[in-house]
Design brief:
Chain lengths: 306, 327
């Protein structure tokens, strides 16, 4: 096992983690500010990917496709928030789970009805294809490097938005005391729609970006949604910083576990058994990570103590 | 307004009369459909103990359902292919006997529920929902990557397992087995809810402080309920795998966990017969709308949304207007 391979896998894990962060940042904000558990977040990811694939095949422009994905997801998010989600803020978690589960069914089947059952394909644009040579002689796909950098820029932007701007102050205040914020003259329902649309836009963007390296199909959002849940449970619900750390931890654990666990078991087992056992354990690794974090800190790494 | 126990009697009557009608008119498909509904009902009755009475929302009960399926699948597969399952401490070559499969399933599901419960019941609310979901997902990925038992393709069983004195391949006889199990589960669940344990569990949902103040151990109550709940859902999984003579990772899928919750909501949360009515209606909808449109999940979604937003208390709440045990 060479160092180059290890470095490549770390980059893969990082890229996966950064994409997870785009998903979980929105999810954790929505929970932190509105107290809503949103299962339909994966559907917004799917909408972004489908929109990007459709626009890219119509216009040929990847940049346009990204913008279309972002706006379509934000728009879908805003509409859903105003029509349905808004009625759920004062309900218990069971109602929220059920209603957003119903939304998944509607979005998924609606997309299947509109685009058909076959997966769509979104190509990496020509200028982002190929590999770059990183220091140390590591060949790594340019597109994946772009994803890492782009994701980090967005993460930094989100951090600035929340800590430095007026709307960020309102969002943070909304997490702490809803009544007080609205008493101070902030239009709380507009703020909620904004936060929901922001989270939706991030999910849509993630869907479009990942759509270029995977196939775009109905049901692509839910596995990512469940991983994003694991991320925000590890990071602490409501904490964007926790979502970032959690995403990278989960991304690295999942990628490195899949590669190294079979090899690790190979040290004291025969190859076939080691591959089998190793990959079985690897598939459980992030959940084991989550359990360990929970036993140690029941509200996640950066969650507020209950 | 109809009394809840009259409605319950009516539902039990339907559950018996429809298959009898189907048997007399030679409609084996209807019997299979009803068997499916009864098995789903058992799974959801199990979940209702945790979700309805205990008030902790498990979004991962497919973990137990799938485990039940795989226990049946693995035991029967070893038996049918003459591969020894365990050599030590006792020689065990798998089994095709339903009662033995059920007992092993119940024990293993309870064990899994104890492990998942011990970790996830440390948390509450939305954390609990996500963690149970994650554990079920873990089981899902574990089953897909465990190639010794079929991996993603699952396991097929050539012959349905046997029950002493009955021909389980006959749809109506297998239905009767499932129905009697549902009846026994409902009977015990009804007793359990009214027992000191059930009352304490019900109270623990409403106020943790008060339950602890009168001397109950809150965590022990919740964990016990979760273990019982998981064991019942696991048993349903073994039956479901026997119905299909097939088990695959899809029995661990998160959609299934969601559907169990849906059964309970459609019927009525915390009502003894809520999950039964919900499962019946779900299977009926799946069959009738599914026959008209490939996109039946859209309609299911809309119906669900309407129930959540406008109809509190599910069907039983709508028909009976009596307060649920837990209101």
């Amino acid at each position: 096992m060479s160092l180059v391979l290890i470095a490549e896998q770390i980059l893969n894990g990082l890229q996966f983690g950064i994409m997870l962060f785009l998903m979980s940042a929105g999810l954790t904000l929505i929970f932190g500010v509105m107290g809503l558990i949103n299962l339909a977040h994966g559907s917004l990811y799917m909408i972004g990917a489908f929109m990007a694939a459709a626009v890219a095949s119509a216009t040929g422009s990847f940049i346009l496709a990204l913008f279309a994905a972002l706006s379509a997801a934000a728009l879908a998010g805003a509409i859903v928030e105003m029509m349905i989600i808004r009625k759920l803020y004062n309900r218990d978690h069971l109602d929220q789970v059920l209603a957003t589960f119903a939304l998944i069914l509607i979005f998924s089947e609606g997309t299947r009805w509109f685009f058909g059952s076959f997966p769509l394909y979104l190509d990496i644009p020509a200028y982002l294809q190929g590999a770059v040579t990183l220091p140390g002689g590591i060949q790594y796909p340019l597109y994946r490097i772009t994803l890492i950098v782009f994701g980090l820029i967005i993460g930094a932007g989100l951090g600035l938005l929340i800590t430095k701007t007026r709307i960020g102050v309102q969002i943070r205040a909304g997490e702490n005391d809803r009544e007080m914020v609205s008493a101070l003259g902030v239009n709380i329902s507009k703020l909620y729609t904004f936060v929901f649309a922001l989270g939706a836009a991030l999910a849509g963007l993630a869907g479009a970006l990942v759509g270029a390296i995977q196939s775009v199909e109905v049901g692509m959002g839910e596995p990512v949604l469940i991983l994003a849940f694991v991320v925000i449970v590890i990071g602490g619900i409501g904490s964007v910083k926790g979502a970032l750390i959690g995403s990278i931890l989960v991304g690295l654990t999942d990628t490195l576990g899949g590669i190294f666990l079979p090899k690790l078991f190979g040290l004291f087992m025969d190859l076939a058994t080691a591959t089998n056992v190793g990959s079985s354990i690897a598939s459980m690794s992030i959940y084991i990570l989550m359990s360990i974090v929970l036993v140690w800190r029941p509200t996640g790494l950066f969650g507020q103590k209950i | 307004m109809i009394k809840e126990r009259h409605l319950n009697t009516f539902v039990l009557g339907l559950l018996i009369l429809i298959p009898i009608w189907a048997y007399l008119n030679d409609e084996p498909f209807i019997i299979t459909l009803m068997t499916r509904a009864v098995i789903f009902a058992i799974a959801a009755v199990g979940l209702n103990l945790a979700l309805g009475i205990g008030g902790f929302i498990s979004f991962g009960h497919a973990a137990f359902f799938g485990l039940g399926g795989y226990v049946m699948g693995i035991l029967a597969w070893h038996s049918q292919s003459y591969v020894t399952l365990i050599e030590w401490p006792i020689l065990f070559e798998g089994t095709k006997s339903m009662p033995l499969i059920w007992i092993i399933t119940i024990v293993l599901s309870a064990l899994l529920a104890a492990i998942i419960g011990m970790i996830s019941l440390k948390t509450t609310g939305v954390y609990f929902i996500m963690i149970t979901l994650a554990f079920a997902q873990m089981m899902y990925y574990f089953s897909t990557s465990w190639s010794a038992y079929g991996g993603e393709d699952g396991l097929s069983i050539y012959m349905r397992n046997s029950f002493p004195g009955l021909n389980t391949l006959d749809p109506i006889q297998f239905f009767i087995i499932c129905f009697i199990i549902l009846f026994i589960v409902l009977f015990f669940m009804g007793r359990l809810i009214k027992s000191p344990f059930g009352l304490a569990l019900n109270a623990s949902r409403q106020s943790r402080q008060r339950v602890e103040a009168v001397g109950f151990d809150f965590h022990k109550l919740q964990l016990t309920a979760f273990i019982l709940s998981g064991a019942v859902t696991g048993l349903a999984g073994a039956l479901f795998a026997d119905l299909n003579r097939f088990v695959s990772p899809s029995m661990f899928s998160w959609q299934l966990s969601g559907e169990f919750i849906v059964f309970i909501i459609i019927g009525g949360v915390g009502r003894l017969f809520g999950p039964v009515i919900g499962a019946l209606i779900f299977v009926w909808l799946e069959h009738s709308i599914g026959g008209i449109s490939d996109y039946w999940h859209i309609f299911l979604g809309l119906i669900l949304l309407a129930i959540v937003l406008f109809g509190k208390g599910g069907i039983i709440g709508l028909v009976c207007r009596e307060d649920a045990q837990n209101e």
